[in-house]
Every structure is written in C-alpha cells, then in structure tokens.
Amino acid sequence: MGLILKTIAIIGRPNVGKSSLFNILTKSRDALVADFPGLTRDRHYSKIKINNSSMLIVDTGGLEAYRAENILNKMFQQTELAIDESDLIFFIVDGRLGRHPQDDEIARFLRKKNKTNLLIINKCEGLNQDLLKFEFKNLGIENQICISASHNEGIDLIYDFLAPYCDDSTQEEANDKKIKLSILGKPNVGKSTLINSIVGEDRFIAFDQPGTTRDSVSTDFEYKGKNFLIIDTAGIRKKGRVSDAIEKFSVLKSILAINESDVSVLVINADEGLGSQDLQILGYILESGKPLVVAVNKWDLLDQYQKEVFRNSITKKNHFFSNYEVIYISAINKIGINDLWGAILRAYSSSICKIKTPVLNRFINDLQQSHQPPIFRGIRPKLKFAHQGDTCPPTIIIHGNHLSGIKKDYIRFIESSIIKTFNLIGTPIRIQLNESENPYDIDKVKIKKTGLVTRRKEINKKREYLKKKKLKN
What stretch of H or E contains 58? Predict the structure, then answer.
C-alpha cells in the first residue's frame, strides 16, 4: 500500500490557463491545451515533486453556468468532487480580463468548503502586479500570487507556497508497475460509462452526447492485486468527419494512448453492429502490436435474433478476431464486467509470455517436419533454430537458409501455430526471419587480420575470383 498523498485541485473559469499550469507543474503535456473555452471536462490527475516529496494535482473543467441541466452541470459535479477530496485549492483567474462576476461566485462557493486556497492571477506578463492583487482582494482569499503560465513566470512562487505542506513522510513508496489499460471506440459507445462501472464511481463524465470526452484522461485502479492505470479516450471518428480543431487534437491523443498502453479494450456498440470505423480503430491497435480485448456494449438491448446476427458478423471477420476475445457486456447495468477483466488479464499475460529457446526449437523442428515451407525458385527454405527476442508483443526470431523465399502465407501459418501451441490469447505476435550467411560466398568474404601466409592465400583467392568474373562478363 502506498502512502496517501496530499492533493491540489486547480479550479477557475474556462480558458484562464488551468491546463497550461497543470502541464508546467507536472512537466508534461498530459493535459490538452488550446485557445478554446471548455476544453477540459473530466478530472485529470498527475503527480508533482516538491522537495523530494510527491503531491497529487488535479486539473478540472471550467466553472461556468454550472447550475444548468446540461453537460456543464456534469462538469461542475466533477470539479466539486475534486475540491472535496483535495487538501489545497489553486483558484486561477485571468489578470488581463480582470475580475469577473463568475470569479465572485466561485470564491463564495470555495468559502463554504473551508479549504486552504491560493489565488493565482494568471496572464500577468507586463502588468502592474500590485494593482492586480488589489483588484482581486475583495474575493476574500488572503494568499495571492501573480504568474504567467504561458511565459513560465512566477512558477517558483507556487513552489515556495507549497514548501511548508511538503513532508518527508509523504515520499512515495516503490510500487509495482502499473498496467496501462486504454478504452477505445467510436463516440458515444459507452467508454466513460464502462470505466465508471469498473471503478464504482462517476469518475468520468458520461453524457448522451457524442464527443463528451475530449482529452485522454486516466484513473488508478487495483484488481486482484495488480495496479492498473485506466485511460479514457475521446471517440475516434472517420477522418472526413473530423473538422473541429478540438476533435482533431482529441483523436491524436487517443492514438497516442494506444501506443502508451499495455492492453487496449475496443468498445463496440451492439445496436449499431460492427462497422468500418470499428475495424479502422482495430487496425490502429493491431499495427501498434498491443494486446486487445473487444467489448460489445449495450448487449442487453438486443433480442435473440439481433444477437445471432451480430455473432455471425464477427464470425465472418474471423481473420481479424482469430485469437482475440469478444466479451458481451452492458456497462450501465454492470453486466459482463468480471468476464471482461478475465479477458484483459489473459491478454496481458500472453503479451509478456516468455518461451524458452529449447521449447521453441523443438516446435520449429516439428512444424517443419509436418508442414515444410514451399519451394521457391528450386530451393526449399530451411528453418534451423529460433529464439524469442522481445515481449509486448512476443517476437520470435527464426534463423535459417534461403528464408527470403518464404511467403506471407507461411509466416501467417507459423504465427497461428505459435498462438495455438502456446495458448497466446489476445495478443499479436511478430515473426522475424534472419538469413544465415553462406560462408562460401566469395562476395561476402572479408580478409581477416591473421598470419601473413593465410592472408596472402585469401588475397590470391579473391584476385582469381575477380579475374574469372571479368572474363565471364
């Protein structure tokens, strides 16, 4: 068990620089930043180091018209949860626009929470800081500093403020490696609802509107003694339909999340069936070489006939799903969640599987005896020995002669045989062919630095070979 870290929540109106400050303090680009109000919606957690101690920091959505019965109300609920679980509050205001009525309303709300607050006046480059502090004094927050997040000015003042709250006892203990689990799919298929069902709380905004999630945001979770980092991603649409600048950034972050994850879960909408966009996202995952589990959501909404039609469509595309598990779930009703976890653990275990070299060599020998490679240009390729080169995905390196003559069909046959023999479920595998050099190929002979007599013999052999080659030409 790791020690509980002190938590800082960053709050404020939209577009005042919360995510920019979050990226500076975490020394990352985890939070999506653009000159658009309302870009951040979900809580975004990360860790910062202060005097060799760790603290947890939370980026939140902008507080604006939060009493409205729409997605802004959901954003406010997420921000309020972040405030309630935090020890310190960073309240950010815009120094260039000055004091806003919404700032007064947020300040009144914070006073009810009875938390330690720091008023951060952002975008202060070139402005009179004393006048700015006087303007925002009536907000009732004693601790005030002026910074410019975009110009990296005044950040040291934030560290100075945090120093008294740091304690050596909060140093983070060494934890086991976190398994990164990315949840992917088209917009509005239930990705955020699925994560909320898994963690048992409204961790991410789930709203009946495509494009609710804009950034790739994550949360920690423990299952059967293993630590997971679950990443909720924005819905990936077809390129031709992605016109909004925010959505382009969101899709990019989703694709980056695939590359960073250890296991990917592709969520498919059961009532829409398996579409071309689902297959395109599947292609992104397979190209990255990541383990995959397919979760068919809203399964409870289908009747028996519709379920049979869907299963038949999966069977027809067996070349995509040959060794990947398809789990039928209902995220909102928490049906099939345990089956999904079982498939995730099996896929991860398969991706880190290590096969011993003697076992692989026996497998290659038996495979070659039962199904020899086809003859290519009068020569039959020969598989001599193999060993595993890497994991995630498992990479098998095969050595032999004339391997350039092996076609893709036989490589796929080797892959499927390895998957069946070693029970590798939910993970792709890579086959790498290494051609053995012919020691009698005079073109590749290098003159060794040996004794004088041996060296002269090799030089003479090379000269005779070159003479014969010229005469033939």
Answer: strand 53-59
Tell me which amino acid residue 158 is. I
Among 58-62, 233-237, 297-301, 364-368, name the one with the lowest average pLDDT.
Answer: 233-237
What own/partner pairs with CB < 8 Å and gap ≥ 24 does 357-361 have? 357/385, 357/386, 357/387, 357/388, 360/386, 360/387, 360/388, 360/396, 361/385, 361/386
Long-range CB contact pairs, 396-402, < 8 A, 24+: 396/355, 396/360, 396/429, 396/430, 396/431, 396/432, 397/432, 397/434, 398/364, 398/431, 398/432, 398/433, 398/434, 399/434, 399/436, 400/433, 400/434, 400/435, 400/436, 401/435, 401/436, 402/376, 402/435
- The stretch 331-335 carries a mean pLDDT of 89
Q: How far apart are the first and last CA of the chain?
A: 76
Bridge partners for 50 per DSSP: 53
Does 5 or 302 have the greater pLDDT score? 302
Amino acid present at 462: K
| pLDDT reported for residue 175 | 47
Beta bridge pairs of residue 119: 91, 144
- Position 353 scores a pLDDT of 92
Looking at residue 34, what is its pLDDT?
47
Q: Which two tokens stand for residue 230?
A: 């679950």
Q: And the tokens for 370?
A: 């039962």
**Residue type for position 235:** G
pLDDT for position 207: 42
Query: What's the mean per-residue pLDDT of the chain?
Result: 79
SS3 state of residue 473: coil
- Which residue from 140, 120, 18, 147 is spatially nearest to 75, judged by alpha carbons? 18
Helix (H, G, I), strand (E, B) or coil at 136: coil
The Cα–Cα gap between 331 and 204 comes to 13
Measured distance CA(43)–CA(220) in Å, rounded: 12
Q: At what angle do helices 18-26 and 155-162 cross, to 10 degrees?
A: 70
The answer to whether 413 and 358 have CB atoms below 8 angstroms apart is: no
> Looking at the DSSP assignment, which residues form a beta bridge with residue 266?
184, 294
pLDDT digits (tens, 9 = 90+) for 130-142: 998 998 988 888 8
Query: Please, are residues 40 and 18 in contact by the beta-carbon 8 Å criterion?
Result: yes
